[in-house]
Amino acid sequence: MSFVAFLRENVRWLAGGFLLTCFSSFGQTFFIALSAGDIRNAFDLSHGEFGTIYMAATLASALVLTQLGKIVDYLSVSRVALLIIPLLALFSVSMAYVDSLAMLVFTIFGLRLFGQGMMTHNAITAMGRWYVAQRGRAVSVATLGLQAGEALLPFIYVSIVVSIGWRNTWLLSALFLVCVALPVIYALMRVERQPRSSDGLEVNSAPRHWQRREVMRDPIFWLVLLGILAPGFIGTTIFFHQVYLVELRGWSLPAFAGSFALMAAMTVCFALVGGVLIDRYSAIRLLPSFLLPLAVSCFLLAGVEVQWGIFAFMALLGVSYGLSSTLFGALWPEIYGTRHLGSIRAVVIALMVFSTAMGPGVTGFLIDFGVDYPLQILIMGLYCLATCFLMAFVGRRAAARNLSLAGA
After folding, report:
1. Domain boundaries, the chain
2. What is the rounded CA–CA span in Å between residue 43 and residue 110?
3. Most buried among 136, 163, 354, 395, using CB within 10 Å?
């Protein structure tokens, strides 16, 4: 089936997944950070104090997600949406009226849990469960929603906030979630997708459905995570310390900010490319290569001091981000099946959130102790390169185990 035919035949479910990830933006770091200056001024917080509050709330949301995420195994996508979208709107209202540090921590916790956590989790789990032969393409289309949110919502926020203020902008966000996002997503997702004759053969799926307790005891799971968590950890760390890096290199901060558009474009392109590759060859076979662009990008950023290095780094980071975003959604059904996919992915997302929360803190601590920042980036690149070889080994082991279980 051609990609255009696939989109046409599955438009309602793909659009629903796309919108779930897009509107997860209200709980994503980039959107909350738009209000960071106003929040710090309102509570007289330093950058470090607000960062600590944000990290604590994010880590708490990750812990809760490991249990709450199980509900996608028992409730339909539309029913989960009916639960989490109003709660995300409620915490958006809470941000508009936040008046104490305790309320701020709880509000950020809720935004992170129901925005970044459950909205994305609901969408990608549905794509992994509903599709088999076209799973890679389905996941790639759904994950593009986040890039759309990153491209559109900051501009909309900045345009509105000058007129009505940051608190009223959060109220407007809540109104939008309840009055627009919820009915549209529910209408798209209320009918569960059923297998079709055009879906193709059930390839690239695990021969049995693992329970979460079995997965947690499986060495392959923990080895795969060493690769899967790397792009988020490295990207978040470098973006968090971008001002320090720009000052260190003598680069232009506007030039660095402008390079994000290139990264976004490459992410979109290679998310779609990754979807096609996964459907043709499987996510397991893609494991050894998806970190190679990230390794090269780190080597460039660590060693190149001229300003063009920013754009080369961002382009390669976008390649790795695009491939990994699709791989992240398609890999687990291939290794562990789909029956308990929600509870398994809840653990993976929680660990991903944990790693992205810890990355900036660990590297900042090393900078404070005089460890050269470009050297840290070089080590990240070496880690990615070494992990490529590890992923080749793990991929072979996972594929061989699937063959063995299928023949049993």
Report:
1. 1-202, 203-408
2. 19
3. 136
Instruction: Determine the length of the chain.
Output: 408
Distance CA 283, CA 274 (A): 9
Residue type, 238: I
Fold category of 1-202 in CATH: Growth Hormone; Chain: A; (1.20.1250)
Fold of 203-408: Growth Hormone; Chain: A; (1.20.1250)
> Which of 112, 116, 119, 113 lies closest to 82, judged by CA?
119
Question: The tokens of 320 are what?
Answer: 């790795």
User: In whole angstroms, what is the distance from residue 12 CA to residue 351 CA?
Assistant: 31
The structure tokens listed for 164 are 């009505």
Residue type, 390: L
DSSP-assigned states of every residue in 122-189: HHHHHHHHH-STTHHHHHHHHHHHHHHHHHHHHHHHHHHHHHHHHHHHHHHHHHHIIIIIHHHHHHHH
Let me know: does 320 contact 297? Beta carbons within 8 Å. yes
Distance CA 327, CA 275 (A): 8
At 56 the three-state DSSP class reads helix
| Contacts for 297 with CB less than 8 Å, ≥ 6 apart | 312, 313, 314, 316, 317, 320, 381
The CA-atom distances, in angstroms, between 8 and each of 70, 191, 249, 272, 309 are 31, 17, 48, 16, 40
- Could you identify the residue written with the tokens 């106003």? 38
Tally of CB atoms within 10 A around 41: 10
Answer yes or no: are the C-beta atoms of 69 and 117 closer than 8 Å.
yes
